[in-house]
Structures are given as C-alpha cells and as structure tokens.
Amino acid sequence: MRRRRTRATASGGVVLAAALALSGCVLDACPAIGYQDTSPVTLRFEKTLPRDARVAACFGTECAPADLPASADGGYRVPQQAPFLDDAVLLPTTVRVVVTAAEVLHDAVHEIPTRSERTGLWGQCPGRWWYEPVVIRWDVAGA
C-alpha cells in the first residue's frame, strides 16, 4: 500500500511539473533588470563636412545645442552629460544637430536608432540595448 502511494505521489509530481513546463508559467518570467546605454552617441555624416564647419548638438527637440569638437579620429560623439544632456532627459531618443559655416548648413532633430538583444527561453524578455550611430543626411552646394 505504501509503495502505491509513493508511486502515485511521484506520478502526480511528474504530471504537475510537465503541465507547468508546457504552460510556460515558470519559464516566462523575466528578471527585473533595467538596462541603460550611457555611452556617447556617434554622429555619422553622410557627406564630408566643409573645413570651416562647426558642429553643435544636444539631446531632445527643444534644447540649445552646444559646440561639439571632433574626436581625434575626426568623428563626432555626443556625450550624455551637460551641456548636451538636460537633467530632465533620462533616456535620450532624439538628438538635435546643427552644422554651421558662414551660415547654417543643417539644423534638424534626428531619431537615435537602437539595437537590442532579447533574453529568455523564447526571447520574450528585454535585454541589453545600445545606441546605433545617427546618420546625418544633408545637402550642401558643391559637396
């Protein structure tokens, strides 16, 4: 009698575990982890900038662009800190870019593209994400 009860309990446990596993109740849980990319956002100009061009940028749509010097490799990276980032902006989604020479050559707000990885058994959970380079397309006479 005792042997039957042990077998019945074991069989019931296996059936319950299989039901839970197949229903996804146990495996659908996502960890409570927040991800944030705090690296500078790269600006990639589709056309070469004029030699006397100045680049300014800021995060958001109603922001005041600050001068952005070129990096040692000639690229432009907007750091996520003042004066480019307002304290009210937690996760920037847009960047305003202004290019001037003798006159304003480009003044526009651009969406910042992102790339992310999914986690979980079926990719149902959000994972880490990164900012992709912002491609600046603009027309300049003679460029």
Structure description:
This is Lipoprotein. With 143 residues, the chain is α+β, with helices and mostly antiparallel strands. The protein has 2 domains: 1-30; 33-136, no CATH class. It is built from 1 helix and 9 strands. Strands 3-2-5-6 form a 4-stranded antiparallel sheet, with no helix packed on it. The longest helix has 22 residues, at 2-23. The model has no long low-confidence stretch (mean pLDDT 83).
Secondary-structure topology with pairs:
Layout: H1 2-23, E1 41-45, E2 54-59, E3 66-67, E4 76-78, E5 94-100, E6 104-111, E7 114-119, E8 125-131, E9 134-136
Parallel strand pairs: 1-9
Antiparallel strand pairs: 1-4, 2-3, 2-5, 5-6, 7-8
Main sheet: strand order: 3-2-5-6
The value of Rg in angstroms is 26 Å
If you average the pLDDT, what whole number results? 83
Strand content: 25-35%
- The total count of strands amounts to 9
Query: What is the string of helix and strand elements?
Result: HEEEEEEEEE
Cα distance spanning the termini:
91 Å
- General shape: elongated
Sheet with the most strands, sense and barrel status: 4 strands, antiparallel
The number of helices is: 1
Helix content: 10-25%
Q: Pairing-aware structural class of the strands and helices? A: alpha+beta
Ranges where pLDDT stays below 50 over 5 or more residues in a row are none
How many domains make up the 3D coordinates? 2
